[in-house]
Structure prediction request, 216 residues.
Amino acid sequence: MIKIYGLKFSNHSAMIRFALMEKNIEHEWVETFPFSMSGDKTILDRSAQGAVPILECDGKFYSETQAIMSFLEKKFPDKSLISNDPSYYARTVEIIKIFELYVEYQARIFYPSVFFGVEQKTDNSEEIKVKISRGLSIIEKKAEFNPYIFGDFSYADIYASLVISTADEVCKKIFNWDILQEFKKLSKVINVINAREVAKIIYDDIAKGMEELKKS
Ligand SMILES: N[C@@H](CCC(=O)N[C@@H](CS)C(=O)NCC(=O)O)C(=O)O
Prediction:
C-alpha cells in the first residue's frame, strides 16, 4: 500500500488527498509537518526543500505534487483524472503550471502574514499582484469551463480549487482585491468543484486543522 506524508490542512497535501479520494486509492496517510516546522532532517532527504507531500511506494520516495499526481495516474489508471488526448493533456499541465508558478508561488510570499500573523515587509508587492492578475487572466482565456476546466473533472480542477482557496485570502488581505469578483468564470468553476463530496471533506479537514494550529 502506498504511504503519504502530508499535512491535511495545507493546500499541496490536500491536493494529493483530493486525488487519492477521487480515484478511490487505498493509502496510509501519515500526518507530517514539513522540515520548516518540525526540523526533521529525514524530510530534507526526501524532498528538495523539506516540503510535503511525499509519497512512499516500494521503498522509494516521491516529492513535488505534480510528480506525485503523475505517479498516481500511471499506477492507478482506472479512474483517470487527466485526458489521454495530447492536446488536452498538455493544456491540463499548462493550467496546473500557471496556477502553481504565477498564482500560488506569488501568493505564498504573503502566507506568513496572512495565515500566521507574522509582520512582513515586501517591496515588490505591486509586481506580485500583476503576476497573479496575468496568471488568472490567461487561465480564463485558456480554460473551457464546460463545466470543469476542460470538460471532465481533472487535476487542473484540484489545483484551481486549492490554489484559489489561499490566493483569494491573500489577495483580499494584502491588496484589498476580490479575485473571484473579477474573474467570474473561475469563480463559477470553483463553485462546481467545491460542491463535490470529496471537496467538502477536504475543506472540513482544512478548517479543523487550522483551528487546531491556532490553539497550539
Ligand atoms: N513544490 C512543492 C510545494 C509543496 C508545499 O509547499 N508544501 C507545503 C505544505 S502542503 C510545505 O511543506 N510548506 C512548508 C515549506 O515549504 O517549508 C510541491 O509541489 O509539492
Notes: The longest strand covers residues 2-6. The domain at 86-215 is CATH 1.20.1050.10 (Glutathione S-transferase Yfyf (Class Pi); Chain A, domain 2).
